[in-house]
Amino acid sequence: MTNTIVIESVNPFSVQINKLNVTECSPARHSAPHIHDLCEIYVNLSGNVSFIVEKNVYSLQAGDIIITKPYEYHHCIYHDSSDHLHYWMMFSPHENPELFDFFLERERGTDNLIRLPEEILDKFLSLCEKLTSINPAYRISALSAFFEIISYIAKGIAKYNVQEVNQNLPQNVSRILTYINKNFASIKNINDLASTFHISIATLERYFKKHLSMTPKRYLEDKKLSNACMLLRQNYSVTDACFESGFDDYSHFITIFKRNFHITPLKYKKNL
Predict the structure, then answer these.
(1) What average pLDDT does the structure give for the chain?
(2) In the prediction, which pLDDT does 139 show?
(3) Residue 236 belongs to some domain of the structure
(4) How far apart, in whole angstroms, are the C-alpha atoms of residue 158 and residue 59?
(5) Same structural domain for residues 153 and 20?
(6) Which pLDDT score is estimated for 26?
(7) Per-residue buried b or exposed e for 14-52, using 16+ beta carbons within 10 Å of the residue's own CB
(8) How do residues 90-120 score in pLDDT, each as one tens digit?
(9) Are 121 and 230 members of one domain?
(10) Percent of the chain surpassing pLDDT 90
């Protein structure tokens, strides 16, 4: 039996992995949602948390894995003051898109939660622990551990993805999230949103604070920013990225972009 494996050139790319324990007073507990052009693997180890990706909120168990691709909106939701231990891995897929096509070709907001069987999970967690402590100079060992983790992710997307979403989210909040995800570019502000759902701004803000640990203004703004970043990567002009994403004031867009990314949209585009 003959098996010929062709390995084409692999371009350099970066991988970062952290093992973090977020305590009640940790700044990370109150950090902004992530908007970035990297793939991310999050592994919950302990803590009473959920995770929002796009319009879906996933209730998490120890060992659950959340994956997101570039510009896929996401952040962790804390339900109490207990410590939250987790792995957090980020890597760049753009230099070698064919290696990570299973990650990149997913529809946004789908197949984000992976729940590996116990016998597989133990091996997966061992690899995560190995990658956090391995000497970066041992590149073959580091790459071996990383790509073994990636192979578990690919298998998990195909066989062990969990579709249970918004189980603990009130139906009215779920409807609001779905509406924002479909119409963020045409929603001018949260006044429009409150009016559409015939509720007060105070009620809308209470919904988001209780169930998503953020304000509706921030959620809407981040959805627009995420889209603008994606358009800039696709070589849209800064002006087109601004207005296509629903910002109706160019100067305001520049200000918000700099506040979030500490760089102007034009420099961001050039850096890409």
Answers:
(1) 92
(2) 85
(3) yes
(4) 20
(5) yes
(6) 85
(7) ebebebeebeeeeeebeeebbbbbbbbbbbbbebebbbb
(8) 999 999 998 999 999 999 999 999 999 999 9
(9) no
(10) 79
What does pTM read for this prediction?
Answer: 0.91
- Distance, in Å, from the CA atom of 222 to the CA atom of 41, rounded to the nearest integer, reads 20
Place of tokens 């693997």: 41
Residue 192 has pLDDT above 90, yes or no: yes
Per the listing, tokens 């908007």 go with: 35
Long-range Cβ contact pairs of 79-82 (< 8 A, separation 24 or more): 79/48, 79/49, 79/50, 80/48, 81/24, 82/24, 82/46, 82/47, 82/48
Q: Where are the alpha helices (DSSP H) in the chain?
A: 101-104, 118-133, 139-159, 171-183, 190-196, 201-212, 216-233, 238-244, 250-261, 265-271
* Total structural domains within the chain: 2
Contact 72, 34 (CB under 8 A): no
- With CA atoms as reference, report the closest residue to 45 among 121, 101, 138, 97: 121
